[in-house]
Amino acid sequence: MSDRLLNEGVPKRVAIAAIVLFGLLLIAGIVAITGFVIGSFREKELIDGQHELENTVLLLSRHFEQQFEDFADAQARLTARLATSEIGSPSEFADRMSTFAVHSLLEAEGDGSFGVNDVGLYGADGDLINTSESGPIATVSIDDQPYFKSFKSNATSATTRRRLRRGQRPRWRERRRWWRWR
Description:
Elements lengths: L1 H6 L4 H71 L7 H8 L2 H12 L8 E3 L5 E4 L14 H8 L5 E7 L6 E7 L4
Antiparallel strand pairs: 1-2, 3-4
């Protein structure tokens, strides 16, 4: 191409300028197309990442919903097995729930109930009656806890749940409590 331009009488300087200009236009085109490809690739990856996050959230929400349903079923099953609706007074509840058979039932339910480490039964006065933990029953009272006071003053449900911090251990445990008196 440059030979043809030189043969037609175009000065050498103009031919070099034309070659440089075409080279710069070619580089600018390559840069523009590369920028467009990178931008579209970035957008595609952002959309794919958003879909993956939405799917993860959906999967986690379904998992936790199933866990909560299983936990509620375990509570209902344990409440039915304890037959607390047949008990008429707090002292009768304490007598019936302080037996070894109830301890064994709580231990079996605590071991197989969806991450629940131990189950505790508390009386109307807030004192621990029985637990699924092995060994002697500790002297524990929850009568000064706000959730117990609230539940005792307005018992609208058969169960309440609250995470309790146990001693100096760094992990949390879930306890289930049953009260049937108003």
